[in-house]
Amino acid sequence: MVITHRPKRWAGLPVFVVALVLVAVAGSLASAGSGEEYLALERPSWAPPSWVFGPVWTVLYVMIAVSGWLAWSARGWTPALGVYAVQLVLNAAWSPLFFGAGRYGLAFAEIVLLWASIVATVVAFRRISRPAAWLLVPYLLWVTFAAALNFAVWRLN
Known about the structure:
Layout: H1 2-11, H2 13-30, H3 34-40, H4 53-75, H5 79-100, H6 104-128, H7 130-135, H8 137-156
């Protein structure tokens, strides 16, 4: 039985990778040319340079995809994966609000919802797969930092 389960389990990984690629592409399209926009904004002294965001998000997206896949392969589609899907949608929505529309206050409200949905996903995944939950912790920490940065940029601009 384990042998027949493994191919099914591994077959699901590309689905999660594609989902995260779509989220990343949505963010990239919305933030095309944002490096210059980011540099033109008043930013707090602790704001990272724009080149940091790409590598950080790449690593985080891999971790998010693996996390979702681990939760799915442990129990199949559960309500926890519904919460996971919500946070993916909220993740994809932030860049168009912040960079595309320049709506820093609305983007801050949205990132607070994103943060809450990540917390809910971590809690839900912990019941299913502890590794899946732990893989989301760096994402939660980065979004916490990003929310603080978003708030500071909103206040300064």
